Target: Tyrosine-protein phosphatase domain-containing protein
Amino acid sequence: GYNSLQEYIATQGPLPDTRNDFWKMILQQKSQVVVMLTQCNEKRRIKCDHYWPFTTEPVTYGDITVEMVSEEEQADWALRVFRVSHVSSGPVTEETTGPKSFIHCW
Model:
């Protein structure tokens, strides 16, 4: 967490209208690990938006740029590492302390 290793944030999966806010929260709270316990689609129902880049090409969500650094997929989990940065009208103005690990389990 931001103040100690014992802190965490529990939230629903981002929806299309909240995806940009989700990434802003990740950057502001300096989250190092995100664990996703659902798939984007389950039983033909959309559970959350696909809120991360599909490839290593950086994607901008609002004023946050997300770049996939690495990806490892298995049958029931995936580990993705991202570089997350805040972008103003010029060059990068703030970057997180390091890559963020996203663990997707289902």
Summary: The CA atoms of residues 39 and 60 lie 22 Å apart.
